[in-house]
Amino acid sequence: MGTKDVVDIDAVAREGLEKLGYNQEMTRTRGLFHILFTYGLAAPIATSLVGGGPAVMLWGWILVSALTQTLALSLAEICSKYPISAGAYYWCYRLASPRYKLLFSWINGWLTMVGNWTITLSVTFGTAQLVVAGAGIYHPDWVATPWQTYVIFLGVTAVACAFCLFFNKYLPTIDIICACWTALGIIVILICVSAKAAAGRRPPSFALGGFDASASGWTPGWSFFIGLLPVTYTYAAIGMIASMAEEVHNPSEILPRAISWSIPIGAISGVVFLLPILFTLPDVAILLAVPSGQPIGVMFTLIMGSNAGGFGLWFIIFGIGMFCAISISCAASRATWAFARDKAIPFHSYFSRVNPYLADVPVNALLLSTAIQVLLGLIYLGSSTAFNAFVGVAVMCLGASYAMPVAISLLNGRDDVADAPFHLGKLGAVVNGIAVLWIMFAIVLFSMPAIIPVTEVTMNYASAVFVSFAVISAVWYMISTCQRHVKLGLDIDPKSLIRWSIPLHWSASPFL
Questions:
Q1: Residue 381 and residue 410 in contact, taking contact as beta carbons nearer than 8 Å
Q2: Which of 35, 39, 91, 202 has the smallest set of CB atoms within 10 Å of its CB?
Q3: Across-strand partners of 355?
Q4: Closest CA to 244 of 255, 253, 235
Q5: Rg of the chain, C-alpha, whole Å
Q6: Is the pLDDT higher at 3 or at 55?
Q7: What Å distances lie between residue 442 and 82, 117, 225, CA to CA?
Q8: Which is more confidently placed, 32 or 492?
Q9: Quick one: average pLDDT of 99-125?
Q10: H helix or E strand, kind and range, residue 233
Q11: Which of 144-158, 185-199, 376-390, 490-504 shows the lowest mean pLDDT across its residues?
Q12: Which N-terminal residues, if any, form the signal peptide (predicted)?
């Protein structure tokens, strides 16, 4: 594609954005392969072993990939019509009835923001725990204290933030490097693990169908679903691709392709990564006994038969984790910036600024997103259980935010997306329905403890945190609405607080 063609496409994208009610503030520098997010391939190892082992790891991965694909297609359809960094909360505003669109948009916006901040936190903190696992290869008796883990987390977060802050114009190239690193890394792991197998080889009956629910304490059927938790988490950030909408060439075409293709790419990558590991898996009891709770380093060391071999394969996974931390930190900053642009957070005029001297980086929004992660990370110092609740909250918030516009469109008879450039056709209603039902089930799943009997350590507080955030956002909505009523000299009554919205032109943004 020539320079003139890119300029013409960007001009069309700019006009389309203006029709949606916004001015072009970012520079469009990204193509399809720059926004295909990389997923945490090692995420299913620990909890899936607790949930049942190989059968859960492999078939659970395939099952969740198939179910998530329906959500990806549903989001791609809506995104193709409304390609904007605001994402799901803006889609709710455009799809919901005039009576409730402001309320739904507000609720969705805070689900989106809490989900973005906590999912980014979980990635950076998870990468820090990978560092601990890597150190454990050479120092197996060392158990990191909460403070040590937190300091490592600060280092990972600082690196991710620095890349987003000072190397924004190089991030598209870094994303390409990430894709190459991931693809080559999977091939290297496949060859090395298959060739070495120092811990022994497993028969197909174990690798493809081995199932043991005893570690979870649940009945076998529910234990299998518990084992799906990390796989679901792996795909939780799929909708964050939309946060990059205003930096993408031809977003109505590229965004839906990126969202819909990311699941098959992730699914195939995951299967190729998991199969050789399942055929060479060391003793599960040893892996579950790792003090850090992250068995990836010990697993690779046992399979390779040496510390050096285990560290080499661990380093591949660590690299993927760092690349993912950079990408998701960038996306979270864009989501924060878009929400501030719509005046939905305190000091919005400050956090909605774009710095022209740092390659159009929303510096203040990036720093806010990073600061929130750093503060939430402090919870780990007091209770790892309370901190782990935020991982569940991330999936629940993002899942609910994705499901809302899909459900609204479905209840509207899908009339609003009839002219979407990426249209699902006659199967659209079925795809949308499966996606919504899957998210509803996933929210219930992430509210359950992974292990029973439940103790203070194994208790899952995600549902309590989820409800708490919902209550806070609802109260804030009421306060903000009252303030706007007073400013406009309107009467205040309970019904108006729920259904009130200023009569705006249809292309205007939700909260302006």
A1: no
A2: 202
A3: 361
A4: 255
A5: 23
A6: 55
A7: 26, 19, 9
A8: 32
A9: 89
A10: helix 229-234
A11: 490-504
A12: none
Q: Which two tokens stand for residue 439?
A: 């998210």
**CB-based contacts of 400: which residues, under 8 Å, 6+ apart?**
111, 439, 443
267 close to 62: Cβ distance less than 8 angstroms: yes
The DSSP bridge partners found for residue 273 are none
Question: What CA–CA distance (Å, rounded) separates 300 from 405?
Answer: 42
Round the average pLDDT of the chain to a whole number and report it. 84
Residue type, 339: F
List of residues 6+ apart from 266 with CB closer than 8 A: 39, 65, 234, 235
Max Cα separation, the chain? 76
Residue 185 has pLDDT above 60, yes or no: yes
Confidence of residue 499 (pLDDT cuts 50, 70, 90): very low
The three-class DSSP label of residue 248 is strand
| Over residues 189-196, mean pLDDT | 94
Q: Which helix (H) or strand (E) holds 54?
A: helix 54-81
- Residue environment code for 147-167, b if the CB has 16+ CB neighbours within 10 A, otherwise e: eebbebbeebbebbbebbbee
Q: What is the DSSP letter of 426?
A: G
Per residue in 141-159, pLDDT (tens digit) is: 888 889 999 999 999 999 9
Q: 3-state DSSP call for residue 456?
A: coil
Cβ distance 31 to 172 under 8 Å?
yes
Q: Per-residue pLDDT tens for 365-390?
A: 999 999 999 998 998 888 777 777 77
Sign of the dihedral defined by the CA atoms of residues 211, 217, 220, 224, in that order = negative
H helices present in 139-218, as ranges? 146-166, 171-196, 204-209
Instruction: Output the six-digit token pair for 143.
Output: 């158990």
Mean pLDDT, residues 21-28: 79
DSSP codes, 19-39: HTT----S---B-GGGS-PPP
Residue with tokens 């899952």: 460
The CATH H-level (homologous superfamily) assignment of domain 3-499 is Amino acid/polyamine transporter I (1.20.1740.10)
* Distance, CA of 413 to CA of 293 (rounded, Å): 46
Residue 281's SS3 state is coil
Model-wide pTM > 0.70: yes
Buried b (16+ CB within 10 A) or exposed e, 116-142: bbbbbbbbbbbbbbbbbbbbbbeeeee
Tokens encoding 384: 């790892």
Q: Can you say how many angstroms the Cα of residue 233 is from the centroid of all Cα atoms in its chain?
A: 7
The token pair at 319 is 């690299």
